[in-house]
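Record type: monomer structure entry
Structure origin: computed from sequence
Chain ID: A
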Amino acid sequence: MTNPKKIINFESAQKLVTRIAGEDAMRVIRIYEKKKANVTDEELAKKMRLKVTEVRTILNRLHYRGVALYQKSKNSKTGWYSYTWVVKSKRIAELLLEELGENLEKLESKQQIQSNYGLFSCKGLCETIPFEVAAEYRFKCPECGKAMNAVDTKKALKKTEQTLQNLRDEISAIQKSI
């Protein structure tokens, strides 16, 4: 089966990798993907025009999350160690699916609240809270103190349902890519 779309081409995967290991992390992964073989930190540094220590920092952050793995070998003449790295795209997919699954649960919970409760919010949109909680605060925002008004739950529910559908579609596409 051919992958319809590589995991690194998903915008959410790119954002995840950037959050994990910084702005240059996607460059590391793209170089690895292009080479289709293990790479050394020195090779990456040369291609990226960065210091080896900067590349190692990126690789170590990726390693911490299981995205990059290394093999260590010792040069018998110099006594120095050399590290050869491999990037596990499947691990990126696993981390992304885990994160998206958590987001899905939160949105489903939000959808439940929106469909079962009358909601209130201030004009500053600090927080949206159920009627019962708003009544306890005498319809004054607990964060900013401004008056709270009823929220159009049908509109909010429609927006949440659309976001949920988009998230489910993305999860499905990612699952098909692995």
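Annotation 1: The two ends are 10 Å apart (CA to CA).
Annotation 2: The mean pLDDT is 91.
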